[in-house]
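Q: A reviewer asked whether we had any structural model of the full assembly, not just the individual parts. We don't, so I'm hoping you can provide one. Inputs are below.
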Amino acid sequence: MRAPPAGPGDELGAIDTPALLLDLDAFEANIARLHGDVLPTGVAIRPHGKAHKCPELGRRQVAAGAVGLCAQSLGEAEVFVGAGIGDVLLSNEIAGPDKARRLAAIAGRATVAVCVDHPLQVAELAAATAEAGTTLGVLVEVATGRRCGIGTVEEARRLAEEIHAAPGLELRGVQAYMGSAQHLRPPGDREAAIAETAERAAPIRDALGVTHVTGAGTGTYPIEVASGLWTEIQPGSYVLMDADYAQNQQPPPFRQALHVLGRVISTHDDRVVLDAGHKAVSVDRGPPVAPPGLEPSGISDEHTILTVLDGAPAALRTPIRLVPGHCDPTVNLHDWIVAMRGDVVEEVFAVEARGA
Amino acid sequence: MRAPPAGPGDELGAIDTPALLLDLDAFEANIARLHGDVLPTGVAIRPHGKAHKCPELGRRQVAAGAVGLCAQSLGEAEVFVGAGIGDVLLSNEIAGPDKARRLAAIAGRATVAVCVDHPLQVAELAAATAEAGTTLGVLVEVATGRRCGIGTVEEARRLAEEIHAAPGLELRGVQAYMGSAQHLRPPGDREAAIAETAERAAPIRDALGVTHVTGAGTGTYPIEVASGLWTEIQPGSYVLMDADYAQNQQPPPFRQALHVLGRVISTHDDRVVLDAGHKAVSVDRGPPVAPPGLEPSGISDEHTILTVLDGAPAALRTPIRLVPGHCDPTVNLHDWIVAMRGDVVEEVFAVEARGA
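A: Here is a predicted structure for the entire assembly that you could use as a starting point for your response.
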């Protein structure tokens, strides 16, 4: 792990660039907003740790009423459990006896659950828990699109039988998460997509004789909360936000808490060049957004070119904040989150699950 | 740094996924091809370390006749010098006294040079070398597009005067690298772009009274080598290759040495789902390429969906190699390069400059 780019008390100009910044005021406001809206409904909040990969941010979410965290990879789950998060759902499938063994091992240290959509996964988990002497929660994932999940009541019943037959496995419920609905722009399209997901999930829940249904993301969670079907939501991006999610609703319900800080290393009449490129900010959902008067017009591995639309070009050394297009893979590029209170560093958090 | 995903002697199926694989036969063939073509011309080869961020691969390039490495960030330069690479060019601008100090510090341990395009950078480097008592090489960068660099002989002369006035700085030559030419598909377009770059660089070289011109990448280096202007080339991708560069020329002059290994975690009639998404393979130049009969039809943070065009869907656990669209940012997502000889792991190399 690299040296942190800043320390507590540093001002913006002293931060080594490129760096990942967290606006603590915005982060705290985002937690207050979502948790304040959802907790009174009785629906549980299990924030997705894949967004921040940072146990310290997860601990703050748990302290604000979350039941635990989601992880999207075994490596993330290992980091979260190792850091003391007491309840972790691996909201994804794994395959292979080695990964099953590692998951069974951490189930001895926390409440751990995982999704399945195939009998072989159940068999691998059953063998691993038997060997480790631990208990894993299991959720049957319902197909909501073209990714993982089962589509029929018959498949669900078969999986449930095998789960019930394994002493180390406990059937906890159903996962129904529709990723592709999160960024549908018209609110009606998101509602229709989640209604369709509910129609697929309800019969499977009923056939399995369970009540727990987990799913939902930052783009759709109010719909799942209002549905009466979901008992737990898994939003991740709400604490950080990004340019893509900001287009879902105007004004966005959450504040932009995450920025990538670059510094001007070359300045010209019509443009400035920053020392932050797509090794510092992910472009899988489009380029980052620059401050007013500047527009990204080129991005390469270590550079972002900002065309000057308005005003004089910034001087060499000037630090400039970019809003990432997509928060999750951007965080995964950094070892440290520099937590700011205004323009002063308050704390620096390790992105412990980076690359995991 | 995470635990390595494999160890020497492991077979393909035992590698923890997702993982970054290097085909050593292809890597060695690529070095033999480019170095064999270029060394007899007398033009120096300074491979770009931003492609692999791995000192061990750099040492093998130097052992095969390279004069040293390029780095694209200060952090990369620090890692390469720290790992014993004796000659490193930071082929980029830096800004700010802290970065200048760090660069001057490593100049006491290796031959180190850096690019400039502004008098303030020269002043910062002059102050830092004076303080450290070291000597830095300096190259004046020529603007070839919209990124960094100066455009006029007058600017070059002014920079040269300030470089000559600083006891710790040595004017080494000119950098003229046209990144935007590397992926122009028609060979004639690449030739025209490099001819234009030469027209910009030659008068600046002459005005500065230097002979050394460095630049060129994997997509254009034969043109620069043949030009008579360039004395050093900076190709990076040639040792690894990616799907984007493979489209430049059919058949590609270099073999695909880099793959991302995923494993089937969900299988369906029409598709399989891998445990490798855009946190394991960069999509800034398009999706990865799958083996024959499979086509990527969706990619998210931790998943790639492969539509089955031909044959039966692969079974759960099956390892599948993907060819990254862009090698540099893909390598930057991984802590380890698993070096394979055929389907058996020979060595595992740390990506020491990952995130640097």
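A: Points you may want to mention in the reply: Chain A touches chain B through 56 residues (CB under 8 Å). Chain A has two domains: 12-22+251-350, 24-241.
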